[in-house]
Structure prediction request, 126 residues.
Amino acid sequence: MIDPNMLAALALRESGGKNVAEVGGGDGMGVFQLTNRPGVKPAQAYNIPFAANYAAGMIQKAKAPLPGKYSNFTPDQLNQAAAAIYNKGYRKHPITTDPASIDAGTSRPAYGKSIVDLMYCFPQSR
Prediction:
């Protein structure tokens, strides 16, 4: 299960919580700025329940192998790495064992770290 705070943080970071097209004409759509890929049509990207479930699945898939690969990472660094993978993918810019390089290659500076920081804005469930 994915921490709902992470989904909230992703929505804030990706679109400011707005169900909109990516500013500047990029490929992102909806609250989670999903891109038009197999399995995601524009109408689905703007459907918040679908988009939230899809984004949660992306995070879950990204996060599952991380503890075994990066046993030196703290829980926050594992969340940071999962968020960075959500943003940049893994193949193009793989995570290394150096926690300082987790956000290398993200499209926005310190993307994963900002997700973790935003997660702490919702203290009721932490």
DSSP finds six helices and no strands in the chain. The chain has a mean pLDDT of 91.
